[in-house]
Records
---
Amino acid sequence: MKPRVSVAIMAHPDRSRFIPELVDRLDRPSNVVWDRWGDRWDTGRRAMLAYSPTATHHLVVQDDAVVCRDLVAGVERALRHVPAEPGAPTPLCLYTGRVKRFRAAVRRHVGSRRVSWLAMPSIYWGVGVVMPTGLIPDLVAWGDEHPETANYDSRMGQWLQRQGITVWYPWPSLVDHRHSPSLVPGRSSAASRHAYRFVGANASALRQPWSPDVAHIPHWKD
C-alpha cells in the first residue's frame, strides 16, 4: 500500500508565535492541537489521535520544529525505502539529538559509514514522530494507563519497546529544533537542543537518496 501521511502540530501557547510559520512550511494541511493545562501526554495523545482515517501514517510535529522543504511528501517517499521486514510496522523518528552520550553511540555504530537509516528500539525525541495509524489506538490506550512517565515521546517509546517494534531514524534528520529553550523543567539548554546532523531547512526531503544501508544502535537512555 502506498504510504499516505496526515499531520498534526503539538502546540503550546507559549510558542504560539512559531505556529503560523510552521503551518506555512509544511506541505500538507495540518491540525494544530493546543496544550490545555500543561500536560504533555494529554497534548501528545490528542495530536496522535488527530490522524486522518484515510492515512497509513500520522506525523506529529512539535511547535519548535524546524522542518526541511517537502517534508510530508518526502516522508511518504522515505517510508517506501525503510529497510524493514515486509509487513512490519514502520514508525519513524525524524530527529536524532546530539547530547553527549548519544554522540558516542553514533560514533561507535555509524562512524564514517554512509548510511540512510539508524534503527533503534525506542523513540528518544518527540520533535517529529511518524506513527503507523494502525498502532495509534493501542499505543494511546496503553499510555493512558502509565502516567508515571510525563513525556509523551518517552511513553510512546516504552510501548514500542514492549512490542518489540523497531523505530527508524532517517539519517540525516529531516527536522531540527529552533534555538529556543525546552518547556520541560530541568531539560538541557537551547544550545544543546539541535540535531546531530540536520539535512537543512532549505533542502528538500524529496531529494534525499534513500539506500537500504542501516546502522543498528541498541537501547540508549539519557
---
Amino acid sequence: MGKKRRRYEQKTLREKKIDFRRHLRTYLVMCAFFIVLNLLTIGSIGWAIWPILGWGIGVSMQAMSLYGPLADPDDIHPREEERGTALPDLEDEALELRELEKRPYRDEDLV
C-alpha cells in the first residue's frame, strides 16, 4: 500500500469530504478551461470531451465512495467518535477555513 493511500485512509470522513469538494472545484474549473480552449482553437467541442469524461469518472467514483452506494457506513475514525455529535454548520465552516489556511498552496496556484 502506497504512502498516499495510507495517508488518505487515515483521514476522517470530514477531511475526505473537504478533499472531495476541492477536487470537484478543480475539475469544474478545468472543464471550463478545456471547453474554452477547444472553442478558441477548433470552434467546436471536439477533443475536450475526452479529458472531461476521463477525469469525470474519477470524480464520480470519489463522490460515490463518500455519498453514494460505495460509501462505507463504518467510516468513522476515532477522532470523530471522541468528538461525539456533529458540529453545528458554523463550526464546520470555521474548521474548514482553518484547514484551507494550513495548505501550502492556493486554489489559484493550481490553474
---
Amino acid sequence: MSSDDHASQGEPTPAPDLPDHVKETAIALVGAYVDHDREELDRLIPPATDDADDVLSELKVIAAFLSRRVQSTGVVWKPADSREAVATTVAEMLPPELEFAVSTAWEAHSVGEEEVAERFTRGDPMVYVHMLAAFCAAIGTAVYKRAELISTLRQVAGLSE
C-alpha cells in the first residue's frame, strides 16, 4: 500500500524510520494511561526519555490517526473535552508538578496557543510525550475498547501482534 493509499483512507503513514522499540514504547505509554497503571508508566519513563524525540514523533502519528478516527465515527470531541480528558488521565499518574505542566500545556496546545504551551513545558520533550500519550488514551477510548485500541495502534505502527 502506498503513502497515497494511506492518506486516502484517512490513516497516517507509519514512520518506517523509527525503530520498533520506539513504537512499542509509544503504544505502551498509551496503554499505561488507558489502564491508569502508574507502575507501568514508571517502568516506561526511562526508555521513553532515552528516545523522547522519536517517541514524541510516533505519538504525533498516533494522535493524528485517532483524531481522524473520532471525526469519522461522528463522536463529538471538542477542545474542552480533550482538556478535561487529559487532566483526568494524568491525575494521580504523575508527580504534581509534572501533572500541572502536562495539563496546563495541553490546555494551551488544544486551543492553538503553542507559545504558551512551550513555556509550560520548559523545553522538556517528556511533557509533550505525556500530553500526547494521555490524549491518545482519552480519545482512543472514546472509539475503541482497550484491547481493540492497542491492537489497532500496533497495526497503524506496522508492528506484529
